């Protein structure tokens, strides 16, 4: 008689699944660590640049920092006792990702300078092509390609005529010396506001070209003392408590309320911003020019401890007349006034509907993602697109964005994707993607809910699609957590 333990298992798990992670930023590094921890060792990360770090590698403008507190903008499993400030500067965040990737054994398995240009589902697998002409294959693709990484250049007449240095905030030219120079910055988004505070005292003359004023909520950014850092190192539970408290505060005090434009909490945030403007800006004329005509948090809320002080410095000027054109020596505004400049910074944001593109993605039956997304990007629960089996996006279309830790978002998404992967591994099916019906229902409900969010309350912003409808997750963050806790299997098409 055969010993039953010697019989082959009816359904031995697949150990041959090959994973390709595209992008070595925050969410790509996270995916690699989580696959490894789940015992899935056949993975590689492809990164188009020569270094990891994603947005923190690309954005190096003066003053760059994360406006989400650092103990919250950290992986839950890799808290960092050494954050220098409540809101850490960008270089420190980049160093943190470098350190975590190294410590968790990810860095040696990142293939750098490898840009995926095409990803096609053929014969049950993903066939990848790279800009250098090489190819690879995968059973599962995790697109960790980031959200805001294609700079949007403004369509301003004469921009090429400018004879000084001109660059985008996300492509900062550190070879250009700024000391004593006349520096102009176009834009008043989060990037421009941080640049203003950092630059005004370093340059000769600072000119901020404002098309739309912003509401600014005051924050304090104290440094952590050496004693505090030692305490964090000795008692990680203190960092865990801070992280949990900040996460709860951001959830209840912000993420959960943005989706209800009538929320009293939003009214309180508006009152705080108004009081900040009243108390901080002394000149009543400047104060009115800085006063937005829309509600606070309609655009992404800006947090700054010192922007209003910076823009009131004697060498700073706010220009709110529209830009007519750029000329050889500077910017001419409507009404004819010329603003002579040595350096012009375009803090004009990003093309926000690219997501995995310009990579060409071809789904089942040869259908290009570009065709599916003809009327704008979408993804079921921001992760899966019907017809793209075993292709999962992190921080894809309709994800919760906006003054929240994208690390927490990505951690929830990766845990969800691993549940889908587990059933691929168990041979329950070979292919999984959102069903067209689930996608349609999700999108209809999303569109309906989007109408009552604060983002739809009457302003223009990168949160809106071409039809003016907010694209971000329109429900509470608590609902996102629940949705991410377990897949609703009926919403997936499997083969
Ligand atoms: P943004 O929020 O999209 O702001 C772009 C700015 O450029 C706006 O003020 C816009 O004016 C202006 N602009 C665009 N085209 C223009 C034109 N042709 N003429 C004049 N002005 C023009 O971009 P961002 O500041 O780079 O921020 C993007 C996002 O990155 C943020 O919302 C945030 O999610 C993220 N970010 C985060 C942090 C952080 O601390 N966590 C820091 C920086 C960025 P209008 O308002 O009139 O359109």
Uncertain residue ranges: 1-5
Bound compounds, each kind once, are: NADP nicotinamide-adenine-dinucleotide phosphate
Percent helix range: 25-40%
Mean pLDDT: 95
Instruction: Give the C-alpha Rg.
Output: 24 Å
Shape: globular
Q: Counting H and I runs of at least 4 residues, what is the number of helices?
A: 13
Number of distinct beta strands: 21
DSSP strand content: 15-25%
N-end to C-end Cα span: 37 Å
Given helix and strand content, the structural type is: alpha/beta
Order of strands, main sheet, comes to: 3-2-1-7-19
Largest sheet: 5 strands, parallel
Explain this structure:
Helix content is 29%, strand content 16%. The protein has a 5-stranded parallel beta sheet with strand order 3-2-1-7-19, covered by helices on one side. Strands 8-17-9-10-13 form a 5-stranded parallel beta sheet, covered by helices on one side. It is globular and about 75 Å long. The chain is of the alpha/beta class. 40% of the residues are buried. Helix 4 (190-199) links the parallel strand 9 (182-186) and strand 10. The two termini are 37 Å apart. It contains 13 helices and 21 strands. The structure holds NADP nicotinamide-adenine-dinucleotide phosphate. The site of NADP nicotinamide-adenine-dinucleotide phosphate has 25 residues, from helix 4.
SSE map:
Elements: E1 19-22, H1 26-37, E2 43-46, H2 55-58, H3 90-103, E3 110-111, E4 116-122, E5 125-130, E6 135-138, E7 140-143, E8 165-168, E9 182-186, H4 190-199, E10 205-209, E11 216-217, H5 226-234, H6 236-255, H7 264-280, H8 284-289, E12 302-303, H9 307-311, E13 316-319, E14 323-327, E15 330-333, E16 338-340, E17 343-346, E18 360-362, H10 369-372, E19 391-393, H11 406-425, E20 432-434, H12 436-450, H13 477-485, E21 492-494
Parallel strand pairs: 1-2, 1-7, 2-3, 4-18, 7-19, 8-17, 9-10, 9-17, 10-13, 11-12
Antiparallel strand pairs: 4-5, 5-6, 14-15, 15-16, 20-21
Helix pairs in contact: 1-11, 5-6
Bound molecules: NADP nicotinamide-adenine-dinucleotide phosphate.
The site of NADP nicotinamide-adenine-dinucleotide phosphate has 25 residues, from helix 4.
């Amino acid at each position: 008689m055969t010993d039953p333990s010697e019989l082959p298992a009816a359904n031995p798990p697949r150990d041959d699944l090959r994973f390709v992670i595209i992008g070595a930023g925050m969410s790509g590094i996270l995916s690699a660590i989580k696959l490894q921890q789940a015992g899935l060792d056949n993975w590689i990360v492809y990164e188009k640049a020569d270094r990891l770090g994603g947005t923190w590698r690309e954005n190096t403008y003066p003053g760059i920092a994360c406006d989400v507190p650092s103990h919250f903008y950290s992986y839950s499993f890799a808290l960092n006792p050494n954050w220098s400030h409540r809101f850490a500067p960008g270089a420190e965040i980049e160093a943190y990702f470098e350190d975590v990737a190294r410590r968790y054994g990810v860095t040696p398995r990142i293939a750098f300078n490898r840009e995926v240009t095409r990803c096609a589902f053929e014969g049950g697998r993903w066939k990848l092509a790279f800009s250098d002409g090489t190819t690879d294959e995968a059973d599962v693709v995790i697109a960790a390609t980031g959200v805001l990484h294609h700079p949007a250049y403004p369509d301003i007449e004469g921009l090429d005529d400018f004879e000084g240095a001109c660059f985008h905030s996300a492509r900062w030219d550190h070879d250009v010396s700024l000391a004593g120079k006349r520096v102009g910055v176009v834009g008043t988004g989060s990037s421009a506001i941080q640049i203003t505070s950092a630059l005004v005292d370093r340059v000769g003359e600072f000119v901020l070209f404002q098309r739309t004023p912003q509401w600014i909520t005051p924050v304090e950014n104290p440094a952590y003392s050496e004693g505090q850092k030692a305490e964090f190192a000795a008692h990680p539970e203190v960092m865990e408590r801070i992280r949990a408290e900040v996460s709860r505060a951001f959830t209840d005090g912000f993420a959960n309320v943005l989706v209800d434009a009538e929320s009293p909490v939003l009214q309180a945030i508006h009152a705080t911003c108004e009081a900040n403007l009243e108390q901080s800006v002394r000149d009543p004329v400047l104060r009115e020019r800085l006063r937005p005509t829309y509600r606070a948090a309609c655009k992404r809320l800006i947090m700054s401890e010192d922007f209003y002080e910076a823009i009131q410095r004697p060498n700073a000027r706010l220009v709110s007349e529209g830009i007519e054109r750029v000329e050889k020596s500077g910017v001419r505004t409507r009404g004819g006034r010329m603003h002579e400049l040595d350096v012009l910074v375009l803090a004009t944001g990003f093309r926000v509907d690219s997501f995995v593109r310009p990579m060409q993605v071809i789904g089942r039956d040869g259908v290009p993602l570009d065709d599916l997304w003809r009327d704008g990007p979408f993804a079921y629960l921001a992760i899966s697109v019907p017809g793209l089996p075993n292709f999962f996006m992190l921080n894809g279309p309709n994800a919760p964005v906006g003054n929240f830790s994208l690390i927490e978002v990505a951690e929830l998404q990766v845990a969800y994707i691993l549940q889908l992967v587990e059933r691929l591994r168990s041979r329950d099916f070979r292919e999984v993607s959102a069903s067209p019906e689930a996608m349609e229902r999700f999108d209809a409900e999303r569109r309906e809910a989007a109408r009552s969010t604060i983002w739809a309350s009457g302003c223009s912003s990168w949160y809106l699609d071409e039809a003016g409808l907010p694209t971000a997750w329109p429900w509470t963050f608590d609902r996102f957590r629940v949705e991410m806790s377990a897949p609703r299997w009926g919403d997936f098409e499997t083969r």
